[in-house]
Amino acid sequence: MPIVDVHAHVFNIDDLPIKGFIEAHGWPTWIALLVDKVLQGATGSGSLNALADAGSIDELDEQSDEDIEDLILHILDTTPEILAALQLAIDHDLEQTGQGQMANIADPGPLKSVISNFKNANDLVKWVLLLTKTQKRISRRLVKTYKKIDLFVPMMMDIDGWVDDEAPNSQPHQVAILQNVIDELPGKIHPFIAYDPRRAIKEGVAAALARVDDAIENRGFIGVKLYPPMGYRASNNAEAQPPLVDPEKYDDALRALFSLCVTKGIPITAHCTPKGAEATPGISGQNANPEFWRETLSNSDFSDLHLNLAHFGGIENLIEEGKDSWAWKISAMMKDFANLYADTGHHGVLESDPRDDYFKKLAELFAAYPVLESRFMFGTDWHMLARLDNHRKFLKIYRRHYRRMVDGDTAQQNFLGGNAMRFLGLVKDGRNAQRLATYYATRGLPKPDWLTDIG
Ligand SMILES: [Zn+2]
Fold this sequence. Notes:
Elements: E1 4-8, H1 18-24, H2 29-41, H3 46-53, H4 65-78, H5 80-97, H6 111-117, H7 121-130, H8 135-145, E2 151-154, H9 171-184, E3 192-194, H10 197-203, H11 205-218, E4 223-226, H12 247-264, E5 268-271, H13 291-298, E6 307-310, H14 315-321, H15 326-336, E7 340-343, H16 352-368, E8 376-377, H17 394-405, H18 409-423, H19 431-442, H20 449-452
Parallel strand pairs: 1-2, 3-4, 4-5, 5-6, 6-7, 7-8
Helix pairs in contact: 1-2, 2-5, 3-4, 4-5, 4-6, 4-7, 10-11, 10-12, 14-16
The protein binds zinc ion.
Residues 7, 9, 155, 345, 381, 384 line the site of zinc ion.
């Protein structure tokens, strides 16, 4: 049985509205602006050389925090308009919150202390440097980071409609880039294309679905990614928070997608944590509540829909809420819906705190719902995970702790790949298995072992 990472990312900085994205992650505006101006907006100016000096992707890890600080300072020194923009952003933060990192940075000298005081700024910048590389190099890095993993399933993102910003690379362009990556690393990478109902409404649902269909039928994509924390729900968008204009259009755009996915055997992964990257922090994350999937999955038209609720509600939610957590809700729903899955993306298992608490709670949950053994899937959420120091150990640590909780080789294999292969339709006569067999044949690419083994 292959080992599958059912939830990864290989997008780069030009695939995202980066300022909007970082703000949605709760970083201060001035950090978002620094990253935006320095690494996206200003590439091509003086800062490009500084970036080139930052070395190859493999050298990134060796760079000390001091190197990164020096790089930021160098960029600020040589690009005064960024300094001015930064000052404006900090003033704005001060206005909004009544507090800020410091009131005046007209002199870049003290900036060094600001940056080192901001605990994660260096890690963030290091991570963003990784994101300046091409999708191909980022994908190679992913494959190299987890050598034991046979197949990676990167999720595209499409959040332009929800943040005050726009990604430089259009969605069709991103699909074309990823198809190149698929062909460069045959058998290793098969992505999910993003679908955003707001974009679909704006550009026309038929056109949006045609793009999905083309990616699945002709370009080696194997599923669709949804991101409800931006501000929409799987069903009943009249209740979405914050309120939507024309909510019934969102319901229609999503139902049209679900129909296509059922007809063609296309799995869907939907972000599912109450907190995290929300377009409206503290509010729109609630739209990802597993409850809102109940109506969809109860509809007999959609009972064959393969759905993965990514992150399983998040481990903080499980630790804090116990039996009221989203993980418990999802597990209860798994008993009702045969094609409902969840993944381990970005679970905080790298350090004993909160790992020990988490696995204690997870063991209780598995005892109450043994169905999890056939629905719980391994996924890293790399390169979001790459911001953390020992992210390379994610597979090793998760595997070790899972084995302690659930015994037996079959259970282990299901967790690491078997459940994912079923979710993905990569089984005998599965639609994705058939499509990929055709894809490899038409493009004259070697068929990977995991596909040959399906038979
Ligand atoms: Zn993710």
